[in-house]
Amino acid sequence: MGIQEDLEQCKNRAEHEGVREPLMDKKNQSGEQDGSFAQSSSKESAWMVYLSTFVAVCGSFAFGSCAGYSSPTENAVREDLSLSLAEYSVFGSILTFGAMVGAITSGPIADFIGRKGALRVATSFCVAGWLAIYFAQGVLALDLGRLATGYGMGVFSYVVPVFIAEIAPKNLRGALTATNQLMICGGVSVAFIIGTVLTWRALALTGLIPCAILVFGLFMIPESPRWLAKRGREEEFQTALQKLRGKEADIYQEATEIKEYIETLERLPKARFLDLFQRRYLRSVIIGVGLMVFQQFGGINGVCFYVSNIFESAGFSPSLGTIIYAILQVVVTALNTIVIDKAGRKPLLLVSASGLILGCLITAISFYLKVNELAVKSVPALTLTGILLYIGSFSAGMGAVPWVIMSEVI
Questions:
Q1: Which terminal CB of the chain, N or C, has fewer other CB atoms within 10 Å?
Q2: To 10 degrees, the CA torsion angle through 96, 100, 106, 109?
């Protein structure tokens, strides 16, 4: 909406009408034109989109591995390195500080060196971080490694969904973007499960596996066509788009739309941070940023980082609890990728938010009963129910949907 309003305010209205007309005409010419994106998603051509998405979401899996590392390793790390509870708490939480810095710098990095370049930067930080954790003999190396993996997480959190949204055809965009959250959950779940049988140093080495796949996979997939077009690299843009849509696919319409959209943006005044607070953008900013704020302040990191300790404090087996938690998280997130384009964004968010509230209440009640020694035998079951309801509800909506809505409204 903001782009249309800016165009209407331009002096030469006829010129901009000319920019929009081809988009209008081509979208309404024939059934073949309307189905161009569907055709480009045929079995013969969609494999490169799927391969590129798989390589990109290895970054999401690496994200999840970083997030899930601290929960199953707490007791072992504290014992081996003689850490106090406060020192381990710093180790666990410093990840989010690194992620915050990574998220802030990810946009300029992705715009300057490309989406693939940004993925390489994030991978480098994660590799350095995991190696620092593996070789750590004290708290300093441990924290620096955790900080580095957090930075990689922050870059991945922005670049992966943006890259997928830019390479995917419209009819696959919602489902493929949702795989970002699925792979994050997969990384967390695998860390939880194998963390019950591996040492904390060996678990750190497993974090290198998705990074290795990402490093080699990036040599096999094309750069984002939209970024190439924005940088004026016409030949590479055409080649990348053709590679993604298939050798026999007609990319003329899509290529024209991408270039016209970018040209339109180039004609507009250069955006500033304060422009986000203009009235015409305010609704989109509130929706997009607000959902991300609620997602993070809903307590997901606290539950994810210390779920093993939560179960142990409630008197439930931490190993069994984390395994059940991990399996449920993956199953619900996988189902979410199937229904996200059918059920709609808003219904999923409403159901998810309701479940989060109920899950938190049940968990809070269970610990209230424990502290006051009321119905103590019911505490483990109530805690398990509350935590599983919480993570199931988060995975059903608040985990993936805000990322999709952010790309659609802003």
A1: N
A2: -110
